[in-house]
Structure formats: C-alpha cells, structure tokens
UniProtKB/TrEMBL annotation:
Organism of this sequence: Amnibacterium soli
Claim: Cytoplasm is one of the keywords in the record: no
Transmembrane segments: 7-29, 35-55, 75-103, 115-136
Pfam families per record: DUF3180
Protein name: DUF3180 domain-containing protein
UniProtKB keywords: Membrane, Transmembrane, Transmembrane helix
Xref: InterPro entries: DUF3180
Length: 158
C-alpha cells in the first residue's frame, strides 16, 4: 500500500470545505437553521484518534523489533487500513469544519454565535484524527530489507 500523499490530503480537505460550505448555504437558503456539530461528533473524533494510537502500538513494537508477543499479520493490515482511512476522513472533516468556521465568522454576530466553538472543536478533533492516522501509518511501515546481508542470496537475486 502506498503512503498517503500530502497532495491527496489537501485535495480531500478542499473537497470537504466545498461540501461543508454548500451544505451550510443550502440549509440556510432553505430556511433551516445552520449546521452546528453536536458534542458527540468531536468527542468521538478524539476517542477514535486515541484508540487508533493504541491499536497501532503493537504493530510499532513489532516493526521496531521490541514486541514481546507475535502480532497477527491480518491485525497489522487492518490497523494500517484503519490508519489510512482515518487520515483521509480527518482531512475531509478538517475541510468541512473550516468551511463551517468561516461561515460562522462571516455572519453578523461572528464568534458570538453558538456554533463557533463546536465548529472549531470539530476541526481540531478531525485534525487530531488525521495526524493520528498518519502517525500510525508510518508505524506500520516495514523497513526495507538489505538483501546483501541475507545468507545464501546475492544482491542481484530477486
């Protein structure tokens, strides 16, 4: 699996910002109240980031050679996939939360609106989730093997 590209993360964040902005404009234009993220959203984002770091620890220990127990390869693969999905989801939600913050700040009441702090906390939670995903993804990276050091193999052998 390829590492997550920073360009892809930026593109997904921009897409999230566009989606968040259009959603907010559509809600307000339709006469509905503006979107305010619930406290459970940003709470769950922080909990997911912490849980992802806990799941990635055994894989990190295995890669570094300090593992006390064997790690199931399917577990390691699932942790890697979860890390990649978390980084992409975090980028999408950072963009959407940034659009909501900009929407809130550009209104007449600005920071005094009740949606400002939930928007900011959602953005921070999404950023923490995305960074945790990138960290765990780097933990799951296996260092390249030096084929010259393996007995019975030459450098040219594949």
């Amino acid at each position: 699996m390829k590492r997550t590209s920073p360009l892809a993360l930026v593109g997904i964040a921009v897409a999230g910002a566009v989606i968040g902005w259009l959603l907010q404009v559509g809600l307000v234009a339709g006469g509905s109240p503006s979107l305010i993220p619930p406290a459970t959203l940003y709470s769950v984002l922080f909990i997911l980031a912490f849980g992802l770091l806990l799941l990635g620890r055994p894989v990190r220990r295995l890669v570094r050679g300090t593992a006390r127990r064997r790690v199931d390869p399917f577990f390691a693969m699932r942790v890697l996939v979860l890390a990649k999905a978390s980084s992409l989801t975090g980028a999408l939600l950072v963009g959407a939360a940034a659009a909501l913050v900009v929407w809130t700040v550009t209104r007449v009441t600005g920071v005094a609106t009740p949606g400002f702090w939930p928007d900011v906390l959602t953005g921070v939670g999404a950023l923490v989730l995305g960074v945790a995903g990138l960290i765990v993804e780097s933990w799951c990276r296996i260092p390249p093997e030096d084929r010259a050091e393996q007995p019975g193999r030459s450098v040219e052998t594949r």
